[in-house]
């Protein structure tokens, strides 16, 4: 591309919208297991199953959303997602009212779990379209840099939202759910100021299996999926682990990761554009392995803080590097499918990690769960060595 401008109006707005979407999403992810336990009387295994169901809904929808995006329907898909992300916290609020009122507990449980599944659909619509709109706005020579900045919003929300969620939860769950809804009201206001009349020029394709999945995005997607088993366990159960082992709060852990995420995202894009994604695949998997071993073998305050630093760097570096690998060779008419393929893997990794962690915690406890899931980092690195770095989608392939 001749135009090398990065910071356009729509790119700035879509970053802000992405931040608010993930504030809504991650707040609920981090607090929902405790809501199920404290208000609805359910256990970690049910919370893990809810995380898996959330992700399965998103995974089933994303390929079709990607196909719709490739038909040029970027903004229409985004508005559906943002509206859904607004409605779901209101559904949780109704569930809380029913449960606290002391009647219809079964209905409150059913409503909460149904809303959790529908929340997965809303997230699939909003962040698949958001990532595609962001990709459209980026010059080819600065794809990794731009995705790094776009992903910084996700990273900030991933780290700030748990701390804010825990703070609001301690006041009341109703305030918590209302705040999550307010974030989406703001995102819809930002959407109204985007240049919604602008649409990419795409070649429309009939609906087919080939059109739903982008083959070139598969290596990066699978490598990221395996890695994200670890982050799925952290974002769903770290706060509860900290309480039960008398460690500093989950809010402090995620505040530390926030600092590392921001610092990492400031450099990851430019380094990946110049050096490729490999440096982050290797070092980030090693860092997350270290974090999980610390949580498993040395549950102390010092280990807790160090694990937060390592986990923040790991998630902050590997996700944008691999997303850049997944989409950078995709033409305009395939960007929706490339993003949906990567984000399907993202959902499976987070949901699968949360579900498996919940089962393992119930069966063998927190420490053995962390030790078991640490092996996901080894597998992720091996997949890159023997497959990803040799694929044409690698940023190193033509260098």
Description:
- The protein is mainly alpha-helical and 399 residues long.
- It is 80% helix and 0% strand.
- Helix 12 runs antiparallel to helix 13 (366-373).
- The radius of gyration is 20 Å and the shape is globular.
- The two termini are 19 Å apart.
List its traits:
399 residues; mainly alpha; 0% strand; globular
Helix content: over 70%
Radius of gyration, in angstroms, nearest whole number: 20 Å
Give the uncertain stretches in residue-range form: none
What kind of sheet is the major sheet? none
- Termini separation comes to 19 Å
Q: Give the CA-based shape.
A: globular
Q: Helices and strands in order, then pairings?
A:
Blueprint: H1 9-38, H2 44-70, H3 74-100, H4 105-136, H5 143-171, H6 173-192, H7 209-212, H8 218-244, H9 250-275, H10 278-297, H11 301-327, H12 335-364, H13 366-373, H14 375-386
Summed up:
By secondary structure, the chain is mainly alpha-helical. The protein is 80% helix and 0% strand.
